[in-house]
Amino acid sequence: MACGKLLHCNNKLNEISNLHCPDELIHWEEQERMQIDNMLAQSFELLVLGMGTVFSILLLLIVCLTLMSSLMSVPAEVADSAAPVEPDATTSNAAASNATASSNTMVPAGVVAVIQAAIHFYRASPNR
Predict the structure, then answer these.
(1) 73-91 per-position pLDDT tens digit
(2) Rg over CA atoms, the chain
(3) Which of 60, 37, 38, 56 is nearest to 48 (CA)?
(4) 95: closest CA among 118, 74, 70, 71?
(5) For residues 113 and 34, which has the higher predicted lDDT (pLDDT)?
(6) How far apart are the first and last CA of the chain?
(7) Closest Cα partner for 2 from 28, 21, 19?
(8) What is the pTM of this model?
(9) Cα(125)–Cα(128) distance, rounded to whole angstroms?
(10) What is the pLDDT of residues 97-116, one digit of tens each?
(11) What is the CA 70 to chain-centroid distance, rounded?
């Protein structure tokens, strides 16, 4: 063995790494460094892939919400055609104030009638 004297000086190193020559130690360090470089490159790829996925999903969410908002917006003609609700004599003061408040927000008369009926049904039910 050509490197026998070096092995004698580096006894502890050889016990730990089980290497027979310093050249093998250098080779092992290079392999370890290349392995770490590969792991860092792979982790960077996963980082870019994950961040790109999150960015694309958020972008898709924004596009969908904008599209739904534009589809659900009430045109001016429909909002003007909503008839204001006049409270009749049979409604209570609270119902009359609710009807007046709803006429300020342009809620159709049929919707107000359904809401009033639901409130009346709820208040009349014994299991509330």
Answers:
(1) 866 566 556 555 555 545 5
(2) 39
(3) 56
(4) 118
(5) 113
(6) 95
(7) 21
(8) 0.38
(9) 6
(10) 555 554 566 888 899 999 99
(11) 22
Calpha distance 29→8 (Å, rounded): 20
DSSP string, 91-112: S-HHHHHHHHHHHHTT--HHHH
Whole-Å CA distances, 37 to 33, 49, 67: 6, 18, 45
Specify burial of residue 85 (Cβ count, 10 A radius: 0-12, 13-18, 19+).
buried
Distances (CA, A) of 35 to 32, 40, 45: 5, 9, 15
**Coil, helix or strand for 10?**
coil
The answer to whether 122 and 128 are in contact (CB under 8 A) is: yes
